Design the sequence.
């Protein structure tokens, strides 16, 4: 009755060198020719499990069988040899190589010192592209290509190696709704060619749409495997989160007041000197959360950096409480009542080698409280401060002397939020405030942002998590290629309309 | 701030392991080169530590090395590899010589060292901040330029009319008093120790030091926190310039018998390179630098005794220093050794 | 006038050899993502041991190979620390440079019994292929050019080169395709140091014919500057090496010219190669792009 599985993983345990137990005995079986969804929240262990299956990581315990035969992968090469390939969430492309060389890397044919046979490789790739009915340019550096095209190159890369099993890690995270549809067409064609696909996602809608079966992971354990046509989004959500209500967020209605931040015709350049922000105009009022939604890479990072004084403004104005702050350095902005929760907490928000106490005064270390005579730093005051904010925000720390790299992601993020609000700001920039953060901390941080709004602060929220934007924002803008496609109230639009806008299609209201 | 015992013990043990490995490999090389390593080391340690005189020589050799080590250590704490102490020492010595011959007191000599240090080290700071020039390449190039320019000044501008092998000497009134009669140990040593303690204080107990360390660990976080990393880089170079400029100054003002720069600048050559090793073994920590400085000073002071008594070329200690630094660069050497021992 | 031009040209071609070999070696190493600032020390130690090997064996060619061998060993040390133990890329190089100062300063009196300097007897030195009245050209100049062209070809035209460049640009990508990142990085590091070793031995058993503790004279770092100048491209490093070699040789030539010495002190001229390097490096910044993962240890977990 039961088909013999193509892939079988048994009792997989993974403990990282830092002691994190990412997988606690996971079983998974995948049938030939199916699209198998792997569903779970951030940190559930989906990616870790698939990195083990693709040979990137070695399991601490457990067995893997392919076609009933036990295998041990020492490297991705071993997995590829067994017909298993993975497209990672963060693409693994060599930016400066063209598509062709990215694809043939590692199986160029002939000896190491021979000339690379470009024609032969091209021939095989052309056939693959014809079969899947798409075309991508293979002779330009991949860094110049849009993400959707880069993703296809990634898929071609695995198919070029004649894989039977294709693992896709959150493939839609960076795509517009239209690109998602095109991707799904490709996946269906692959299925028709009898390829097996493992589709990692935390998006219920997509999993319902494309998969045949779904395995749900939670906190490193399998909750269950179900047939997609026998389940519902509601059931999957319950399995994924483990309780009925996703998050308990209470947001009382509130009238917004006078504008705190005004942005007028703002132009900002990106790292590659392209226009990243193209003439944005908006305002954030006291007592409101203004959300910016959109697929990542549409100018959000540049916008935030420009407003917070970290990136040059080419044209336009930024006004805070009536004062022109265009191009002012961060220090001055902080003194004027700006706080900034940055999107990259490890590389920007914290100095991971330094202690909790040292990090707790980052960006307020020059304030009177911490400064003694002749430039002295008053450590006793800094420690008091650290102790206070750690207590108030329930940040779990071994001690305030411990380096912040020893904290979990959620606690690191709480530390940043705690520090930034301790600046007593009038205007808070919150960029991806709950990315990679556990559910409890997410709830805490979201409620806290609402509290700030209730206290009549102005909050600018940027998030790739649409739910977060919809839940928190009083008004929201959708950004696409550096411009706002629309500014709406969350309760006045449908998810479909937002989806269209995120893909650059104008909303008519 | 705090003294984290566990965070302190491990690097200490790793430095000690490196020192032991350096000494052992040194012994093997000595044996292969046809010397008696035991005899050589006995001569070395006895010369450096066996008497009050030896100790005095050790500490006087330590004096400039602590100062040049602070240059590298401060740089490392700010995320820079500042190799430029060597050239700065020459100009510090020359400036001290010239100023003391005009004004004749210790303060003017020290001021000369400081000004020369700031001026010369300002060049790589400028190149780094405004032209993005990698400081390793720029400071090395500047060291070589300093070498030839200083040689020119020494030979052409301030030669000693009575002794063509030397420059003019620091006048009596501007010499550091000797601590122990009949040795080379002068109160210049106190300058080094004070500088190291001050450097520690600046790094860990002032807002400037905090900003330097944040910049050193993470430039993006620094910018985010309202710290100007360029300012931090400039401060790091300038303070580093001051300490290595002082190293040159105290070497001519506090080291008998010549109180001058000798032929080919032999008596001021190499301290910048020694300082790098001292700093790395001292884990780029100003207080660690004092102790590793004393160890390196011991090698230097004992080397002469070793050459005389065991006939081993005194440069041998520089080889041992090199081995120690390479060993220090091996990450997690403690864990590595444990694993080897267990096997 | 013609004589002067020719002798300067031949001198520049000769002075180019250690710079170019080191630059091209460093290029391969950094293309694979491994920074090494220990070339100065490698040049110096290889010059020392190269001369020693040449005198022991009686053949300057053995001296060259021996120098390359010493470079290889030091490259393996650096590769072991940076690639396999994931250590810092800069500090081992500093260590090797300090070690070289010690080894050579100790080795000259310990082995040859002379203080500070050893003259390599002419019968242990490489015979020139072309002898003119204006100077003679070593076969090493041609060998260097051949090495550069071959390295360039391998780096940009062959699977091996593709893999080397991939581990220096994006080791995750290479790893995901089953390329052994550590192996390629290690081999590239060793290759780079071996070329520098060859260049070091060339200085003692061929070009300068002497061993001193200041023999390398900053060339290891000038070579790194040349690598940046040439945008991590071997062919351009050949051209850059010629320019740097020209100034290197010019300063030697002017220093020994009594007419010029009267006008300008020789010490000023001696700073020329370093000054030129500084100016060029300060002028090109922002226009070159280093390999993306250059100097970054790669850990899979």
Sequence:
């Amino acid at each position: 009755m039961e088909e013999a599985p193509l892939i079988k993983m048994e009792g997989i345990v993974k403990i990282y060198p830092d002691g994190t137990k990412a997988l606690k005995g996971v079983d998974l079986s995948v049938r030939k020719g199916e699209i198998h969804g792997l569903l779970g929240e951030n940190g559930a262990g989906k990616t870790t499990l698939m990195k083990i299956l693709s040979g990137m990581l070695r399991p601490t315990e457990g067995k893997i069988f392919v076609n009933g035969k036990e295998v041990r992968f020492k490297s991705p090469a071993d997995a590829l040899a067994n017909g298993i390939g993975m497209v990672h969430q963060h693409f693994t492309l060599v930016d400066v190589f063209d598509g062709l060389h990215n694809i043939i890397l590692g199986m160029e044919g002939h000896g190491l010192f021979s000339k690379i046979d470009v024609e032969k490789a091209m021939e095989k790739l052309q056939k693959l592209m014809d079969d899947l009915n798409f075309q991508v340019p293979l002779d330009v550096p991949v860094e110049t290509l849009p993400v959707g095209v880069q993703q296809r190159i990634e898929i071609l890369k695995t198919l070029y190696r004649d894989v039977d099993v294709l693992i896709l890690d959150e493939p839609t995270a960076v795509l517009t709704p239209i690109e998602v549809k095109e991707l799904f067409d490709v996946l269906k064609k692959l299925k028709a060619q009898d390829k097996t696909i493992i589709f990692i996602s935390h998006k219920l809608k997509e999993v319902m749409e494309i998969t045949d079966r779904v395995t749900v992971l939670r906190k490193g354990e399998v909750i269950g495997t179900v047939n997609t046509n026998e389940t519902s989004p509601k059931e999957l959500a319950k399995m994924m989160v483990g309780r009925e209500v996703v998050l308990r967020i209470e947001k009382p209605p509130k009238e917004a007041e006078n504008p705190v931040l005004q942005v007028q015709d703002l132009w900002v350049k990106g790292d590659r000197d392209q226009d990243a922000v193209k003439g944005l105009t908006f305002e954030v009022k006291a007592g409101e959360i203004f959300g910016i939604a959109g697929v990542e890479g549409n100018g959000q990072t540049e916008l935030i950096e420009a407003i917070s004084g970290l990136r040059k403004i080419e044209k336009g104005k930024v006004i805070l409480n009536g004062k022109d702050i265009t191009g002012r350095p961060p220090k001055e902005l902080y003194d004027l009542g700006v706080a900034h929760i940055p999107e990259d907490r490890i590389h920007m928000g914290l100095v991971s080698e330094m202690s909790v106490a040292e990090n707790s005064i980052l960006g307020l270390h020059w304030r009177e409280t911490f400064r003694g005579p002749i430039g002295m730093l008053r450590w006793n005051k800094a420690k008091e401060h650290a102790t206070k904010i750690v207590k108030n925000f329930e940040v779990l720390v071994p001690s305030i002397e411990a380096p912040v790299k020893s904290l979990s992601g959620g606690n690191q993020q709480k530390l940043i939020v705690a520090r930034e609000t301790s600046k007593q700001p009038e205007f808070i920039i919150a960029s991806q405030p709950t990315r990679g953060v556990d559910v409890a901390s997410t709830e805490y941080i979201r409620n806290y942002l609402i509290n700030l709004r209730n206290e009549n602060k102005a909050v600018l929220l940027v998030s790739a998590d649409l739910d977060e934007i919809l839940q928190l924002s009083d008004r929201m803008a959708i950004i696409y290629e550096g411009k706002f496609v629309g500014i709406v109230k969350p309760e006045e639009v449908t998810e479909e309309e937002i989806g269209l806008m995120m893909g650059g299609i104008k909303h008519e209201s | 701030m705090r003294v984290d015992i566990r965070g302190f013990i491990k690097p200490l043990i790793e430095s000690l392991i490196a020192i032991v490995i350096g000494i052992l490999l040194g012994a093997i090389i000595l044996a292969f080169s046809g010397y008696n390593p035991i005899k050589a080391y006995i001569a070395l340690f006895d010369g450096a530590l066996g008497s009050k005189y030896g100790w005095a020589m050790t500490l006087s050799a330590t004096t400039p090395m602590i100062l040049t080590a602070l240059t590298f250590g401060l740089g490392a704490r700010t995320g820079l590899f500042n190799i430029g102490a060597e050239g700065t020492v020459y100009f510090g010595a020359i400036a001290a010589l010239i100023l003391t011959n005009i004004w004749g007191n210790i303060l003017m000599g020290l001021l000369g060292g400081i000004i020369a240090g700031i001026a010369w080290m300002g060049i790589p700071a400028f190149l780094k901040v405004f032209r993005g020039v990698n400081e390793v390449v720029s400071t090395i190039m500047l060291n070589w330029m300093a070498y030839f320019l200083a040689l020119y000044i020494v030979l052409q501008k301030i030669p000693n009319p009575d002794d063509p092998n030397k420059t003019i000497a620091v006048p009596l009134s501007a010499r550091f008093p000797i601590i122990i009669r009949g040795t080379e140990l002068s109160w210049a040593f106190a300058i080094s120790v004070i500088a190291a303690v001050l450097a520690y204080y600046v790094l860990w107990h002032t807002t400037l030091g905090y900003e330097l360390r944040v910049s050193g660990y993470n430039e993006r976080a620094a910018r985010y926190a309202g710290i100007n990393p360029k300012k931090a880089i400039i401060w790091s170079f300038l303070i580093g310039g001051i300490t290595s400029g002082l190293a040159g100054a105290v070497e001519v003002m506090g080291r008998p018998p010549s109180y001058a720069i000798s032929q080919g600048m032999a008596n001021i050559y190499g301290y910048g390179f020694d300082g790098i090793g001292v700093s790395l073994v001292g884990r780029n920590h100003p207080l660690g630098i004092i102790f590793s400085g004393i160890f390196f000073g011991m090698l230097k002071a004992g080397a002469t005794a070793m050459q005389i008594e065991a006939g081993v070329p005194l440069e041998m200690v520089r080889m041992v220093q090199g081995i120690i630094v390479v060993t220090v660069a091996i990450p997690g050497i403690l864990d590595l050794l444990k694993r080897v021992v267990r096997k | 006038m013609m004589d002067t031009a020719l002798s300067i040209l031949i001198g520049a071609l000769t002075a180019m050899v250690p710079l170019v070999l080191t630059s091209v070696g460093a290029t391969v190493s950094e293309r694979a993502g491994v920074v090494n600032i220990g070339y100065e020390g490698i040049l110096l130690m290889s010059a020392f041991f190269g001369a020693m090997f040449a005198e022991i064996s009686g053949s300057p060619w053995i001296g060259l190979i021996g120098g390359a061998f010493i470079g290889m060993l030091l490259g393996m040390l650096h590769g072991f620390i940076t690639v396999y133990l994931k250590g810092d890329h800069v500090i081992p190089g500093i260590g090797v440079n300090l070690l070289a100062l010690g080894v050579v300063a100790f080795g000259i009196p310990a082995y040859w019994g002379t203080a500070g300097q050893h003259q390599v007897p002419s019968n242990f030195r490489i015979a020139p292929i072309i002898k003119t009245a204006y100077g003679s050209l070593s076969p090493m100049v041609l060998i260097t050019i051949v090495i550069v062209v071959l390295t360039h070809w391998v780096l940009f035209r062959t699977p091996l080169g593709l893999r080397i460049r991939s581990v220096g640009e994006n080791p995750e990508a290479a790893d995901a395709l089953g390329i052994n990142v550590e192996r390629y990085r290690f081999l590239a590091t060793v290759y780079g140091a071996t070329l520098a070793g060859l260049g070091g031995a060339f200085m003692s058993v061929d070009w300068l014919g002497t061993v001193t503790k200041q023999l390398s004279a900053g060339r290891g770092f000038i070579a790194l500057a040349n690598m940046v100048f040439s945008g991590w491209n071997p062919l351009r490093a050949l051209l850059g090496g010629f320019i740097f070699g020209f100034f290197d040789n010019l300063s030697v030539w002017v220093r020994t010219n009594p007419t010029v010495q009267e006008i300008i002190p020789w010490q000023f001229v001696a700073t020329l190669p370093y000054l030129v390097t500084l100016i060029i490096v300060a002028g090109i910044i922002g226009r070159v792009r280093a390999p993306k993962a250059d100097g970054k240890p790669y850990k899979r977990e």
About this structure: Strands of chain C lie at 117-119, 130-132, 135-137, 210-212. Chain C has a mean pLDDT of 92. Chain C touches chain B through 48 residues (CB under 8 Å).
